[in-house]
Structures are given as C-alpha cells and as structure tokens.
Amino acid sequence: MGNPVHFLQRLSETLRATVKSSSNWSVFFFLTLGLTLGWSLKAQAESPDTAPPELKDALTQIDAAANNGNIEEIMQFYDANFRNSDGLTYDSMQEALTKFWQRYPQLNYRTELQNWERDEDGIVVETVTYITSTQANTEEMKLESIMRSRQHFENQKIVEQEVLAESSKLTSGVNPPTVEVNLPEQVRIGRQYNFDAIVQEPLGNKLLLGAATEEAVNIERYTNPTEFELELLPAGGLFKMGEAPLEEDQRWISAILIRGDGITMITQRLQFVKDLAAQK
Question: What residues contact residue 258 under an 8 Å CB cut-off, 6+ apart?
C-alpha cells in the first residue's frame, strides 16, 4: 500500500476538495424539487389512482423541468410567498437550487404520488421522490437520494413544505466503500440513540478513515457546509451514540468513510419527537 503517512496526506487533500464541494449535498437534494414538503394528511387521504388530472400533470411537469435543469419553469410551481420549516423562501430556494444544478448538472428525477387530499385551500399530497446523478469528472461521482414528503398546493403552486424523511448517498472513486447505515427516522425526545455506518467489505490491509457529524436543520447549512474531522477506523466503520434534545427538533446525521480507492458519504434526516407515531 506504500507509505501510510503519504497516503493520508494525499487522501486529506482529496477529501478537502470533495467535502467542501459536497458536504451540504444532502441539503441541496432537499432543494432540488418542490416535492418535499406540506401539511399533515387526514385519515381520509385518497389513493394516487383517484388524483385530479391537474395534480398528476403538475407532478409530471415538475419532474420534466428538474430533469432538464430548467430553473425558470421549476420556480413557476412555487408561490411567491413560499415558505418551509427550514426557513427557505422563494428567493433562497431559487438561489440554492441554481447553485446545486451548476454543481450537479446531470440529475434524474422520478416522483411517485403516495396519496392526496383536498382541503379548504387546495390539495395536500404525499410523495416519494428519487434523485440520482452521475458526474463524469476525474473520479466518477454518484449521488442518490430518496425523500418522503408532504406538500400543500394552492392554485397549482407550492405554498408550504415539510420533509417527512430524507436519506442521501454520495460516492466517489473507482471502488467506494459499501456502507450499511443503522439509524431510525424518529427518536423520542430525551432518549439515546445509536448511529452505525458499517463498511461491508473486509478491510484487509487497507486503511479506513471516517467521521460522523450531527448538525441542526436550518437555512444556514444550505450555504455554509460543515467540514469533517477524520479519524482512523480500525473497526471497519463508525459506531456512535447520540442523545436526543428535550424538545422536538430535526438534525442531519452524516457519515463519511474513505479508503484509498473511494469515498462514501451518507446523510439522513433524524426527527426528535414526543410521540413516535405523531408524524407517521
């Protein structure tokens, strides 16, 4: 394998460029489409088969515009007074989305309608959006994201958003580590929880570096990415214990795992709730 000190120095240089360019990628995945938020559905939510044609058409058009990277067309589906629980507005959404598409110009979107319901102001829908990308750079970079969400449409425009669940993965290199993550979507306030990110391949004589972070879900993280402090991982993964706050909140939990032949970074949104069934 060569000199491990030289390897770590070279890896650190590569990581600095990679992490600075993509450490907030999970946040931007949330930005890439308006299909990530809204109000709670009532018990009588309808199946996708019964959805109004105008709703199905709007979802199809949003996917098509996102696949084409058409920011002007995408923003036509946002209300001028658009707001969400992370603090984003119409203007900050457009700015962040534009920057994200400049960084990742080859994205593929696919949205599945889960259920829908009319309310007194419009339509509330629950969707699952799948986003994938491959970057043909010096080292191939792949992104994958799955988001389960609700959103509130009024006059075919998105006015309110709130993420229900979010997980994303970025890989880089010729053979990035295969990582299994163990983390719940929700944890009761005040309780402890475990976060494991385990590399599935045997380490052999390879060095493995990694780090885990927990950061608040807020608008500042969209423009100020977090840097990682790496540590040597002789156990083949990350094994962390966290403690939920005493009030309801949301955090991004991230792990990055690095070998000489590749990098894998995974982020998942974790909700701290009073009742585990409250948001299901």
Answer: 11, 15, 177, 208, 209, 210, 230, 264
Question: What's the distance, CA 154 to chain centroid?
Answer: 25
Give the domains, in start order, of the chain with CATH numbers.
4-273 (3.10.450.50)
Q: Which of 254, 253, 256, 127 is nearest to 187 (CA)?
A: 253
Phi and psi, residue 185, nearest 5°: -80, -30
pLDDT bucket at 7, cuts 50 / 70 / 90: very low
H/E run at residue 167: strand 157-172
Helices (H), the chain: 4-22, 25-31, 53-67, 71-75, 90-103, 220-223
Count of beta carbons in the 10 Å neighbourhood of residue 81: 10
The residue behind tokens 């010729």 is: 174
Lowest model confidence (mean pLDDT) among 36-45, 152-161, 258-267: 36-45
Name the amino acid, one letter, at 274: K
- The residues, any chain, with a CB within 8 Å of residue 144's CB and separated by 6 or more, are 130, 131, 132, 133, 168, 169, 170
Q: How far is residue 203's CA from residue 259's CA, in Å, rounded to a whole number?
A: 9
Work out the average pLDDT over 113-134. 90
Comparing C-alpha atoms, which of 30, 17, 53 is closest to residue 109?
30
DSSP 142-163: EEEEEEEEEEEEETTEEEEEEE
Read off the pLDDT of residues 24-82 as tens digits, 9 standing for 90 and up.
444 334 444 433 333 333 435 788 889 989 889 999 999 999 999 999 999 999 999 99
How would you class 9 by CB atoms within 10 Å of its CB: exposed for 0-12, middle for 13-18, buried for 19 or more?
Answer: exposed
* Residue 197 backbone dihedrals phi, psi, to 5 degrees: -130, 105
Largest CA distance in the chain: 67
DSSP bridge partners of 113: 127
